[in-house]
């Protein structure tokens, strides 16, 4: 009798599952076609939803960043003159922003005159006597002079591409000046190329032979945009200035023919 009871006893886990051992695949019930179809549809739907969601994030992210930065810039510039209007009892949003733009415009007009240039010279003389401020002012002035419409001797001359740091690798830079290296046989013309390593504030200076420099058909502003954006605004095709000029000369000749 004891042996019959032991042979007829069923574990509690199997009793709850109707006497079927879930760990034994041979004894498990077969999967119905409806459940497998349902799982496949759920997987396809989940993949489609996640893909469309990521597409929406990719589209809206630059829009949101642009809107946030623009809104912050408007509020920042508006904050210069808005307290003055609040004291006068005038509460119009954007009036301080428009006033700031007009102020910058009139400063540009004033600095373009001889009196404004004299005032700026006196102000620079005072700033250059300050221990720490003069370095910040000199760096920021060089950057602003590089993108200024009134190009001067301290601005970037041209966009340059040099072979750096190894053969087969190239680096973007800006030609700042030229120097003549005197040798026993002949003089060598070198160009001082500034290669930024941290946006535009920090970089290395290389003296490169003018014949080894590739001068692309890019403006100074386009070169700055490429470096600041981390290369995301890089054009698909870059041609040297000599080849670009030859292509321009060929176009009228082809039209005449």
UniProtKB/TrEMBL annotation:
The protein's name in its UniProt record: Like COV 2
Any Pfam family the entry gives: DUF502
InterPro entries: COV1-like
Key words of the record: Membrane, Transmembrane, Transmembrane helix
Region of interest: Disordered: 1-37
Lineage of origin: Eukaryota, Viridiplantae, Streptophyta, Embryophyta, Tracheophyta
Domain of life of the source: Eukaryota
Keyword DNA damage on entry: no
One GO term describing the cellular component: Golgi apparatus
Species in which this protein is naturally found: Hibiscus trionum (Flower of an hour)
Transmembrane segments: 53-74, 94-127
């Amino acid at each position: 009798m004891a042996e019959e009871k032991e042979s007829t006893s069923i574990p509690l886990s199997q009793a709850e599952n109707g006497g079927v051992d879930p760990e034994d695949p041979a004894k498990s019930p077969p999967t119905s076609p409806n459940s497998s179809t349902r799982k496949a549809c759920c997987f396809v739907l989940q993949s489609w939803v996640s893909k469309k969601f990521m597409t929406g994030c990719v589209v809206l992210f630059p829009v949101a960043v642009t809107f946030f930065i623009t809104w912050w810039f408007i509020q920042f510039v508006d904050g210069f003159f808005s307290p003055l209007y609040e004291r006068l009892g005038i509460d119009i949003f954007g009036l301080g922003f428009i006033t700031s733009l007009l102020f910058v415009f009139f400063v540009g007009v004033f600095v373009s005159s001889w009196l404004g240039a004299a005032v700026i010279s006196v102000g620079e003389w005072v700033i250059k006597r300050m221990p720490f401020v003069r370095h910040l002012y000199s760096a920021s002035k060089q950057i602003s002079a590089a993108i200024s419409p009134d190009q001067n001797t301290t601005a970037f001359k041209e966009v340059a591409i040099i072979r750096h740091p190894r053969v087969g690798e190239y680096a973007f830079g800006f030609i700042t000046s030229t120097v003549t290296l005197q040798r026993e046989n002949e003089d060598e013309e070198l160009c001082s190329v500034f290669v930024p390593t941290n946006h535009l504030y920090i970089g290395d200076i290389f003296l490169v032979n003018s014949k080894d420099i590739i001068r692309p058909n890019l403006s100074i502003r386009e070169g700055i945009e490429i470096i600041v954006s981390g290369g995301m605004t890089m054009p698909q095709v870059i041609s040297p200035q000599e080849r670009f000029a030859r292509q321009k000369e060929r176009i009228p000749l082809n039209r005449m023919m």
